[in-house]
Amino acid sequence: MSEHIVDVGKRHIKEINEEIQDACAQGKKVRVINTLSRHNLGIGLPDGAEVSFEGSVGYYCGGLNVGATIDIERNCGWALGEGMSKGMITVGGRAGMSCGAAMIGGTIHVKGDAGPRCGVAMKGGNIVVEGKIGYQSGFMAHAGKIIALGGAGESCADALWQGEVWVAGEVESLGVDVNVVEPTAEEVAEVDKILEPIGLVDSSRDWRKMISGQRLWYFESRDASAWLMI
Amino acid sequence: MSDNQPYEYPFDLPDEDEIRFRDAGAIEGRPAGVPSSYDEGGSARWTPEAISEVHALAQLGRYQVRGYNTFNKRLPTFDDLTFVPATMTRLPLEGYRESCDTTTVLGGGRGIVENPLELKIPIYIASMSFGALSASAKASLGYGASKVGTMTCTGEGGMLEEEREASNKLVYQMSPARYGIDLDHLRRADGLEIVVGQGAKPGTGGLLLGMKVSPRVSQMRTLPEGVDQRSTIRHPDFLGADDLAVKIEELRIATNYKVPISIKMGATRPRFDVAVAAKAGADIIVVDGAEGGTGASPELLLNHTGIPTISAIRAAREALDDCGMTGKVSLVAAGGIRSGVDAAKAIALGADAVMIGNSAMIAMGCNTPRYPEDYAKLGTSPGACHHCHTGMCPVGIATQDPELEKRMNPKAGAERVARFLTAMTMEITALAKACGKSSVHNLEVEDLRALSFEASAFTGVKMAGIDRAYDW
């Protein structure tokens, strides 16, 4: 696979994305340099593409990814890989707010910490954060798993649907309507299967698995007090 | 006679019955002096409605939820405005003969997108989700709109294949909940609509009660079957207008700068909200007034939030004028538009196009006098039904029940939508021609007069007769 280098600098964002898409369409591996933390780099990248970003990127990098393997050397801004349906995104540093927002599938791997509302509204896929996830992570996650190896901030796993938040380390506080459950060996094995390809399996972890308490799923007059929590 | 002596009639007092009007002429059962208020009550605070509301809340322990639109009777309406057609100072067009252009182009003003939305009429079908409506109702709206050269919008439930097939032009909605987001759907859409609010319940997210969260709906929205879906109002990946500008750029890249991007908002502070939305980069701004319809909402929000559509349109147009964005950003008005007359008034007030929801449903058959026993089951009757939230729509439109859905023939529904849109357009052109306009878009505020002080104050439209705007 030959490599194509895209120099970002101050060029128009449309031109940059077109150059990345064209190179991917030609089956070339893409290395994006001089990124200057620009927003909207690598939007809607195609299945099978391989794109790496040198340095840091801004908002929505890898947004609406449909199957590309994306590698970000340092940090990323808000909503990394928002709405992605397939593929793999790796962040060498930290991720900003709303990492993996509303994603449907694929995997995001953040080596540092992730900001608030990590995995907000996600509909599937997995987010693995080696550091800590920020406040209100997993807010209204419909499906999928958020796995944090370095603890979680306040209001963790707030108002979940069927998404799961797995945390090793300290959880500062729980969000509304959360049940903390003891995972079964089979469930831990499933998480290990997600961690295995990125070399993060460690059998000594003390997992806290958070799922919905389902008290906010229905209007019920007999449970009006729970309802008032929101 | 001394003043200290009690006065005495120079005659005997008659019987007490005589004094109390119980003489021979009295009507049995209708005593004089007992006012009708003994039966009817008269408290302006504790009306029978207010009393039953307290009884309801005392049983439920939560607020009431329902569909349809506001029941607040204090809102000034389009009926408070009238047209003043050409007479001596200007010349009308021949209403029965001359042509009047209805072509409407939305979203092309900035010159950024490749394919602005070109509609044959200044009306399109509002964003109503699959979930709120049945799949066949969505398809009917699509075919009906296609026949007359206009479009529909997905609503928040994701793109329904039946609707994509039916609608020649389809706008894809990005709701805060982002149900079923799919890059392929974005690219197959003819426009995108980012929702930051709706007229029926500005400041609050969508609501779909469990009765309508069918297997297919739950699959499209990644929800457990049968839950009471209460959606977010805040978007997951931007907070304020500056971030929204970046988000809009992302969507332009994702769709290759091909299709326009709308921002839809509930009308609250349109004078400012519209200016901010224009600054954020929207190609089209949809302002949905307090009369806007919904499949389900907390009732208090329907009745007590937002500002009337007529006032919102003027404020929105003034905002675009002041920012120099008129012509660059299209303005669409929605909320309680029932006819071509309402639509013409909306256009005269400053809208480039209007969006209809409830009236399109009514054209399909909502509230028709059929299946009376099923209206009765809901405790309502044809013409008064507002039970979209229950999913038990007696005429098969606002339902996910396959048996009820069969009650609307989707082909007949499509034709009724097409005919209704045609009639509305005819009404708009009739008024435009009477006002001497060869294009519906030439209707202007000067063509209107207000019939009430309130309507004049809310819109800045001159009062009828005196032809002077008050300096409110």
From TrEMBL, chain A:
Domain Glutamate synthase alpha subunit C-terminal, residue spans = 16-188
Query: Which InterPro entries does the UniProt record give?
Result: Glu_synth_asu_C, Glu_synth_asu_C_sf
Pfam families, alphabetically? GXGXG
Top-level taxon of origin: Bacteria
The molecular function terms in GO held by this entry are: oxidoreductase activity
Which CDD domains has this protein been placed in?
A: GXGXG (cd00504)
Q: What is this protein called?
A: Glutamate synthase alpha subunit C-terminal domain-containing protein
Q: Which organism is it from?
A: Aliishimia ponticola
Automatic annotation (TrEMBL), chain B:
Q: What keywords appear on the UniProt entry? A: Oxidoreductase
| Xref: Pfam families | Glu_synthase (PF01645)
Q: Which domain of life is it from?
A: Bacteria
Which interval of the chain is the signal sequence?
none
Tell me which residues make up the Glutamate synthase domain: 111-437
List, in alphabetical order, the Gene Ontology terms for molecular function in this entry. glutamate synthase activity
The yes or no answer to whether the keyword Phosphoprotein is present is no
Q: Mind telling me which InterPro entries this protein's record contains?
A: Aldolase_TIM (IPR013785), GltB (IPR024188), GltB_archl_type (IPR043578), Glu_synthdom (IPR002932)
* Example of a GO biological process term: glutamate biosynthetic process
Q: Which family does it belong to?
A: Belongs to the glutamate synthase family.
Name it: FMN-binding glutamate synthase family protein
Source species of the chain: Aliishimia ponticola
The lineage is: Bacteria, Pseudomonadati, Pseudomonadota, Alphaproteobacteria, Rhodobacterales
